Amino acid sequence: MAYKFKATMYYSDEETKEFLLGKAVKANGKRSESHYLYSLVTNEREGQHQADNEGKSHPPSVQLFPEFTTSREFTVSGHITFSGLAHVFQQQEKESALMRLKHKSLMEAIDLKIHEDVIKEDSFKREEQNEDYFLVVLKTYIACYYSCPSAQSGIYEGMFTATCRVIIVNRALWDNYNGKFNFEKIRYIKYEDIAKTGKGIPGGLCKVAEISAKDKTGAFFIPVSTLPVKFPEKTNPGLVLIKGVEVSFHKERLKLKAMNETQKQRYSKKMLNFPS
To answer: DSSP letter string over 112-181?
Structure first.
């Protein structure tokens, strides 16, 4: 049988010669060094193809660490005012786009209220004033009912409640996890995305424990790196990082609703007794 391609193997030691001659005997008793070498190449090629397929069908898995429980629940609630951005209204603007802008303004006002309450909370202040630390405030659930007393003013008012988890990140906590827990980049991830090891999913994750969370779709996770990172040297003592729920979150995490007439009346009565 004629072959289209040919390859020649060169070697000089007797041990390789004896090994090859012994392996080159075919089932019919004849000896063929080229047949043996070709079988080696074929097996190697098929093995590589199988490995490639297995790599495609089994993406790298995510390492999940025990839940992070060193956080405190903190609730902020009260009266809030925010701009409905009526001054940017254009007839051609879509109502959905205006709603997103309004809710974004609302969330910014809520963040400001959370920041004010957190920095006033004595239990979050370190006794050692010179100790390096920062606070991560994780918004896990927000509910707000609002109304617009004057449609022309574009200023909305309402009542909100924000459930948060607060983590005091100092050098001791940082070193306790060998500098591998990136508290500055805590974010919400769906369980489905973790199972699929989708693009952008860290190789290591630690879930932040919550009390009676209703969300079954996902949770907040701390990215865990394989290599340690130094404690942020430029962090201002007492710096507050607010993370978590935003306007795009689903109803298990976020409830923003305009008040109905009954709620408006209750709100007006409550505001008469609300301390100025």
So the answer is: HHHHHHHHH-GGGS-SSTTS-EEEEEEEEEEEEEEE-S-TTT-EEEEEEEEEEEEEEEEHHHHHHTTT-B
